[in-house]
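For the sake of transparency, this paper describes our internal protein records without simplification. Because each token names a local backbone shape, the row as a whole describes the fold. One such record is reproduced below, unchanged from the form in which we store it:
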Amino acid sequence: MVPAGWRKAPGYFRSELAISRHSALIDLVTIDRLKLDKAFKSQGKAANPATDPLETGQLAVKEMKADPTYRSLELDRIEAAMVGGQPGFCADSHFVRTYADSTGVRIRQRLYGVVTNAGLYLLKLESLSTVYFDENLAGFDAMVATLRLGSIKAKT
């Protein structure tokens, strides 16, 4: 279920689904399914459905931090969560997105993840400022709770 008032965000071709309420620079939800053997490329590790979800969450956060966009990412909390009816993790964090002119904005993020035999599913909400994050959080959490995991194709 896509939250009411959200629409596809143009230009996000790396994700299976990218939606925004206001604009992708203000609030963005992305959904990805990664092949198990390609889940943690920078760490040379595969995702495994038998791994504790919190350990998978730590690996996912570490993988994000390997991307220059997320180098300033700071983890606020991580805990067990249900994702599409499966045991997974939920991680809240924040980072500063820096632009070419050296200006930066603070972004809040919630990342859900779950590993099944079909792949590693990652669902991410990124919002500019606390106002947009708080405004979008309930709809995002509801979307995660009702997600049908099998409907998302894996990246090649």
